[in-house]
Amino acid sequence: MIKAVTGTKDILPSDIPRWKYLEQNTEKIFSNFNYKEIRTPIFEETSLFARGIGEETDIVGKEMYTFKDRSDTSLTLKPEMTAAVVRAYLEHSLGSQQPLVKLFYISPMFRQERPQAGRFRQFHQFGAEAIGSSSPLLDAEMIQMSYEILKSLGLKNLTIKINSLGTPETRENYKKILKDYLTDKKDKLSEDSRRRFDTNILRIFDSKIESDQKLIKEAPKLIDHLDEESKNDFEVLKNQLTKFGIPFTIDPSLVRGLDYYTKLTFEIDSGSVGAQTALCGGGRYDLLIETLGGKQTPATGFAAGIERILLACENEKSFTIPEQSIDVYLIRIDKELEFFVSELAGKLRKENLSVDFDYLQRSVKAQMREANKLNTKYVLFIGGDEYKEGLVNLKNMSTSVEEKIPLNKFELLVTKIK
Ligand code: HAM
After folding, report:
1. 278 lines ligand 1 (CB under 6 A)
2. Number of H helices and number of E strands within the chain?
3. For residue 45, how many C-alpha atoms fall within 13 Å in the half-sphere facing its CB?
4. Residue of 109, 129, 261 with the most ligand 1 atoms within 8 Å of its CB, for mutation
5. Please, are residues 206 and 61 in contact by the beta-carbon 8 Å criterion?
């Protein structure tokens, strides 16, 4: 039997109500903050992500699903949305219609990572990108919005971590300071970190290896070497979060795995999901638009992993979905009435009612069992002597009250069920 590919997963009908609940909450909050939805293709030219996310990142280096199509063009299934959104922003000159463009998305993403609880190869993100302002108040909006969404799902066990990576110049200066500090300790670093020492030294902060972490803990912090502008923006952000009543901690090691960040980076972690604690991550990326061929335009954004969030919700039992139901189940008492029942169901469905009935020639008892399983609001019994007298019997399943309705009073039947 062919099975779903490793790291991918079916979202079954029984899972869908939880997904819908999350999506509806998310969309409502995005709209409260005046973000408009954007949908981009599932695949893009590989160079978009290579240039946008950075050649040295794990995503581009080892996780992308890249393939050549029949005309030999290298394409990649999108591993994240920020680069794709910026590509669309530039291609359609969205910035010329509005100086600040606020966009949100909900979409599948693809990364060939080692699958484990909360980590998949096809996963889903919702996220937002605001392109056109360098205001730290917009960064505060981003954090508030993502936090509000997680809270709207009833999540409690959340930690917000923030950091500033400063401007590129600050970072270059700091990289020298870090290099000086680590040079005589290089032998003690893990192999991965030794490689990063030469390619992208800041990413050493991402290392989960204990010996690396020990060294990093003692290292000089970028946050203590910020330029004036980054320092001021960080202060404004912190004050604003405090005014919003949002708790946060400063995590100087939060460099994140994508190269486009400048100034703010942030993550929201959950203590309810095991090893993969990051529900959401983001930050400012003031240079990405230029990198991808536009004029310099400041921007900020975040993305959140839906599977991980739903896992946290499940573990915290943070929300419950009302049981699914239908309006009416038609029960055919006489076998020969199946044509009539099908016709009546068709007419009721045209009235925008949710209706079902038996196609399997089952007994009245079995039909009743099915009706109960479907949690139907009404059952309509059709057949027997009543039918011969031109009547059907409508039973309200919550009160058990039954009512006979003349077959020629279709409007009355509809009103009773509605
Ligand atoms: P990211 O940190 O790579 O950021 O991903 C954001 C979130 O997506 C993570 O916190 C996690 O919840 C989820 N996620 C990532 N990889 C997986 C996976 N393999 N399986 C399940 N969930 C996963 C970005 O993608 C940036 N584009 C965020 C951003 C937007 N920055 C600025 N604007």
Report:
1. yes
2. 16, 16
3. 10
4. 109
5. no
At 76, list the tokens.
Answer: 């990649």
Is residue 246 within 8 Å of 144, Cβ to Cβ? yes
Pocket test for ligand 1, best of 9, 286, 308, 311 (most atoms within 8 A of CB): 308
* Residue 299 to residue 262: CA distance in whole angstroms: 10
Cα(149)–Cα(28) distance, integer angstroms: 9
The tokens of 125 are what? 């993100």
Atom number, ligand 1, closest to the C-alpha of residue 309: 12
Any ligand 1 atom below 6 A from CB of 299 = no
Cβ of residue 123 lying under 6 Å from some atom of ligand 1: yes
Q: State if residue 26 touches ligand 1 by the CB under 6 angstroms criterion.
A: no
C-alpha 364 chain-centroid distance = 44
User: Does ligand 1 lie within 6 Å of residue 52's CB atom?
Assistant: no
**Angle (deg, nearest 10), helices 46-53 and 82-91:** 110
- The pLDDT profile of the chain, 418 residues, written as one tens digit per residue, is 999 999 999 999 999 999 999 999 999 999 999 999 999 999 999 999 999 999 888 899 999 999 999 999 999 999 999 999 999 999 999 999 899 999 999 999 999 999 998 999 999 999 999 999 999 999 999 999 999 999 999 999 999 999 999 998 998 899 999 999 999 998 889 988 998 888 888 888 888 888 898 888 889 999 999 999 999 999 999 999 999 999 999 999 898 888 899 999 999 999 999 888 999 999 999 999 999 999 999 999 999 999 999 999 999 999 999 889 999 999 999 999 999 999 999 999 999 999 999 999 999 999 999 999 999 999 999 999 999 999 999 999 999 999 999 999 999 999 999 9
Which residue's CA is the closest to the ligand 1 atom numbered 16? Answer: 119
Distance separating alpha carbons of residues 43 and 73, to the nearest angstrom: 12
- Site of tokens 């030294």: 201
Instruction: Give 217's contacts (C-beta < 8 A, 6+ positions apart).
Output: none
Q: How many residues does the chain have?
A: 418
From atom 15 of ligand 1, which residue's Cα is the shortest distance away?
A: 305
Chain centroid to Cα 43, Å, comes to 18
Verify whether ligand 1 is closer than 6 Å to residue 377 (CB atom).
no
